[in-house]
Amino acid sequence: MIDSYPLFRAVPMTFEHAIDVCSWRYPEPYNIYGWLPWEQMVQLGVEFGDPLIREEQYLSVVDEQDRLWGFAQLFPLDRVIRIGLGMRPDWCGHGMGKRFVEAIVDEAKRRYPSGPLDLEVLAWNERAIRTYRKAGFGITDSYEKLTPSGMAEFYCMEYVPS
User: Fold this and answer.
1) What angle do CA 158, 77, 132 make, to 5 degrees?
2) Alpha-carbon distance 158 to 46, whole Å?
3) What pairs with residue 58 in β-bridges?
4) pLDDT of 8-58, one tens digit each?
């Protein structure tokens, strides 16, 4: 249980944070959000296993004691900045999601002041959808995409500043 409400901030993802994120294991049905082992990420040069991608696109979300709570990717697409994110599994479901997402949005707006922000979420992930709505995102589209376990329905949610 979390005793108090931490203050979150987004910082550049460190090598140590990247290794830590690869060790996280989510319970079903959220296990789809896990990463490859760190050694494979580096060997394949994918995502934050590639130092350049990690530096350019990935953030760590930490609290005032510099504890790692999660990560985010800010991925520039043609007309939008796509946010990917994840919270440490043992801290999910404790009411911290809105503030966690707001810290990511604040950093994304700082880096890309004129760019619209969006994210994708699996349609069945009602917990995440509720959190994203509370943080200012609204569903703008739905579509199917291939996942490691087959085709699945996704929502695109766009940030609407208040």
Assistant:
1) 25
2) 26
3) 73
4) 999 999 999 999 999 999 999 888 888 999 999 999 999 999 999 999 999
